[in-house]
Amino acid sequence: MIRNILFVEKDCKIRETVFKILRENDYKITCSDRTKPFGNLLEECAPDLVIADIRGERESGFEILRHLKGIHPPIPVILIVRKHYDETVLRAIKLGVFDFLVEPLRKDDILQTIKRAEYLYQSQRLKSEYPNLVKNMSVQIAFSSDEFQLEEIQKVFQDILLDYSKISADDFLNIWLGVEEALLNALEHGNLELKSQWKDELSDGSEFSKFEEIRKNRLADPKFSSRKITMDVLVDNGNLEITIEDEGPGFEKPCIGQEANHRVYGRGLSIIDNIMDSIKFNKKGNRIRMQKAFVVRKPNIQ
Length: 302
What we know:
By secondary structure, the protein is α/β, with parallel strands linked by helices. It has helices at residues 12-24, 38-45, 61-68, 86-94, 107-127, 150-163, 169-191, 198-202, 210-219, 222-225, 264-275, and strands at 4-8, 28-32, 49-53, 77-81, 99-102, 136-144, 228-236, 239-246, 278-281, 287-293. It folds into 2 domains: 1-128, Response regulator (Rossmann fold); 132-302, Heat Shock Protein 90. The chain has 11 helices and 10 strands. Strand 9 and strand 10 (287-293) form a beta hairpin. The two termini are 25 Å apart.
């Protein structure tokens, strides 16, 4: 269970805000402004989770990721990023980041992201002593737009891959980031027909922007909310194939890696492209097939 959190952030106001949110939710939190070496902080507070910003070079989120890489049991790292930071996000993924929080920070986003990390790492630690049970499987997950709960989908996906296949924890985290982006694309740009550019044009950084209002209204409209999303997962020894399909009108096949101006709404496909070994879209543009070879986790032998 995640109870002890290390928060590394230079901005005093952000530190105070996050400290208050986490203390109110019974987390023990140690805050640092990055003046003390991370190695010393790690020894002093023995965190279950690290949240850090990425600004600056010394003891930034990137340095923390490098420091923690290979530590067992793994300590999840959540990075705080600004909008439009495509290159930063991709760099962090390669270093093994668990997830991101996008400024301006919101209470619900912070708590939900921590909860996802808690579920994943609790399960991983409990099962780390046991060999995996199967080498291949095929599973389909289906749900309507108004049933879309990312946290619940992650739990099911984790049960399929992390608990019952031979995938390593590091590969699972990486793959989930790509799957998460594909699912959000299927919901928002597919079933709900929300245009990508609206996120920039209609979002003002507030808790409830015009974009969020349109999203909420469409989730309440049966025309959009009843549309299904299906996710087919095929595991074949060390190879993974994930197909996600929505019931939206589809869109023109995107040019991967060349989204205009590196905007937030273009970040998703860049992330997927950098994580997966291959990506294919159907002609209509409402189905994406992603393939990834993963590292087989070896059972512990006493």
